[in-house]
């Protein structure tokens, strides 16, 4: 069971949250071309280690959050709001 | 080459079982091979077996980081079926099911294949229409499928609560040729048969890097030294992207957890495989008597091989809804496998951007039932350097080309497949 420290609501159980994907991919500009959109939609680094990811506090404040979470230990090291930046170690 | 037979078991019984030999050798790696297969699970061992058996390529090594069959091959619910809808998928899975049907004879090894039938329950008109559509799609491709009504479900699986207050059972889509197999024996059987045909199975040999020159694979670096090969096949389930990163490209894969559970042993209770239509739950009974069951993904990426409690609670809740008698049951064990989830829920058996590097990957939850078919098609693709028609559509490029194989229509979300 993860305990996720929501910046707005405090620490809550993972059942209140929904995973919403890798937070390191950025939507390309409208003229970026097919390859850029293909990479944005489909290709992932899928790290075995630290990953920045989107979570929505769907049963709480409903805000989108960025989490720095380890994909083997499940440790959560940092949380940020959607507009803040997260440093990913080793990335 | 009848190394295992009823007569042999009888004979060994009189000799204190002193005559059995290890089922495969433990060779040291050679400096080079014709083909190196990375991953000693069912898919990798099957690839090596079919390379030797069908294509006559016997100078093959299977490299395994740990021990044979201790990854996802031993971490599933052992269900075998081919009840898919899209022709690209159901033709492939039907080929795999046909290989299952003759697998014990091909391998000379008892994998305890049991065609006990798979029922997918439906609970309302819309689900019945979807089941009819899928069943018709199967029959158009020559696969057995039947719609059974409530009485049919009751006859095959009387323990199911037909009168669930919220989701009463209307009937089910039945594939009689589906069933279960003994997962560990599948790994051991393929290992035994591949070894007997000259394949080197090298355990405790972790791949640490890829050797490529001019965009072509030359071999791999491992914890037991460099191994050269002009062709390398990947069959590493959830760790596919870790290895493709070594080769310098990314793939449409995200690694998620899927849990499975087994209960204490019971007298015979469920003699088919039955899946709930109103929640993610599927169950069968092992030959030892334990109920083996599972549900959906835990919901976020992990390489942890251990499940989390909210999903375990959800699976048990769905199980009790379908079979209230399970409420008195005690769970015995649970475990999780790492699934390489793809954006459309279908798999990859294909060439890669690196010449001579091939992969069987992206199996989502469908890996176990695909084991012989995956090995067969992967071996074909490696041997001929081109896909068989059964896996021609299962490329890494299908998203770029707009040819998604999306059985469920969930959109490009890895965790939603």
UniProtKB/TrEMBL annotation, chain A:
Q: Record's InterPro entries?
A: SoxD, SoxD_sf
One Gene Ontology biological process: tetrahydrofolate metabolic process
The GO molecular function terms of this record are: sarcosine oxidase activity
Classify the source by domain of life. Answer: Bacteria
User: What is the protein name stated in its UniProt record?
Assistant: Sarcosine oxidase subunit delta
From the broadest rank down, the organism's phylogenetic lineage runs: Bacteria, Pseudomonadati, Pseudomonadota, Alphaproteobacteria, Acetobacterales
TrEMBL record, chain B:
Q: Where in the cell is it found?
A: Cytoplasm
Q: Does the keyword ATP-binding apply?
A: no
A GO BP entry is: tetrahydrofolate metabolic process
Source species, domain of life: Bacteria
Q: Which GO terms describe its molecular function?
A: nucleotide binding; sarcosine oxidase activity
Q: Which Pfam families match?
A: DAO
Q: Which InterPro entries match?
A: FAD-dep_OxRdtase (IPR006076), FAD/NAD-bd_sf (IPR036188), SoxB (IPR006278)
Please give the chief subcellular localization of this protein. Answer: cytoplasm
GO CC terms of this entry: cytoplasm
Where's the FAD dependent oxidoreductase domain? 34-377
Keywords, ordered alphabetically:
Cytoplasm, Nucleotide-binding, Oxidoreductase
Alphabetized PANTHER family for the sequence: FAD-DEPENDENT OXIDOREDUCTASE DOMAIN-CONTAINING PROTEIN 1, SARCOSINE DEHYDROGENASE-RELATED
Name of protein? Sarcosine oxidase subunit beta
Q: Organism source for this protein? A: Neoroseomonas lacus
């Amino acid at each position: 069971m993860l305990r996720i420290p929501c910046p707005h609501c405090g620490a809550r159980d993972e059942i209140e949250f929904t995973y919403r994907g890798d937070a390191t991919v950025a939507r390309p500009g409208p003229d970026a071309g097919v390859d850029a959109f293909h990479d944005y939609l489909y290709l992932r680094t899928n790290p075995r280690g630290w990953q920045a990811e989107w979570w929505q506090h769907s049963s709480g404040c409903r805000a989108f959050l960025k989490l720095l979470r380890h994909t083997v230990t499940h440790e959560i090291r940092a949380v940020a709001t959607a507009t803040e930046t997260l440093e990913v170690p080793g990335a | 080459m009848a190394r295992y037979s009823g007569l042999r078991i009888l004979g060994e019984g009189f000799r204190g079982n002193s005559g059995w030999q290890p089922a495969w050798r433990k060779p040291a790696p050679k400096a080079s091979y014709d083909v190196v297969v990375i991953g000693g699970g069912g898919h990798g061992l099957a690839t090596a077996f079919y390379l030797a058996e069908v294509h006559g390529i016997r100078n093959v090594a299977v490299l395994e980081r740990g021990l044979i069959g201790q990854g996802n091959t031993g971490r599933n619910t052992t269900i075998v079926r081919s009840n898919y809808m899209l022709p690209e998928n159901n033709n492939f899975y039907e080929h795999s099911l046909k290989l299952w049907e003759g697998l014990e004879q091909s391998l000379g090894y008892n994998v305890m294949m049991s065609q006990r039938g798979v029922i997918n329950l439906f609970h309302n008109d819309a689900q019945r229409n979807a089941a009819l559509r899928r069943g018709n799609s199967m029959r158009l491709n020559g696969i057995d499928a039947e719609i059974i009504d409530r009485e049919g479900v009751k006859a095959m699986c009387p323990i199911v609560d037909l009168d669930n207050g919220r989701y009463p059972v209307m009937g089910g889509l039945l594939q009689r040729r589906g069933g279960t197999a003994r997962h560990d024996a599948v790994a051991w059987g393929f290992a035994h048969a591949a070894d007997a045909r000259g394949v080197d199975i090298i355990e405790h040999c972790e791949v640490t890097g890829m050797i490529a020159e001019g965009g072509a694979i030359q071999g791999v670096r491992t914890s037991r030294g460099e191994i050269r090969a002009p062709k390398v096949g990947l069959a590493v389930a959830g760790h596919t992207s870790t290895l493709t990163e070594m080769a310098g490209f990314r793939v449409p894969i995200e690694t998620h957890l899927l849990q499975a559970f087994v209960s204490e042993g019971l007298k015979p209770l469920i003699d088919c495989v039955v899946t709930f239509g109103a929640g993610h739950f599927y169950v069968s009974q092992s030959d030892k008597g334990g109920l083996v069951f599972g549900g959906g993904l835990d919901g976020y990426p992990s390489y942890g091989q251990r499940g989390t409690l909210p999903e375990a609670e959800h699976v048990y809740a769905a199980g009790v809804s379908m079979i209230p008698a399970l409420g008195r049951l005690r769970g015995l064990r649970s475990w999780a496998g790492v699934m390489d989830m793809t954006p459309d829920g279908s798999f990859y058996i294909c060439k890669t951007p690196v010449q001579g590097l091939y992969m069987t990957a992206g199996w989502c939850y469908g890996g176990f039932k695909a084991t012989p078919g995956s090995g067969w098609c992967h071996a074909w693709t490696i041997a001929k350097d081109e896909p068989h028609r059964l896996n021609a559509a299962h490329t890494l490029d299908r998203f770029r080309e707009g040819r998604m194989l999306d059985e469920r229509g969930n959109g490009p979300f890895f965790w939603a497949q």
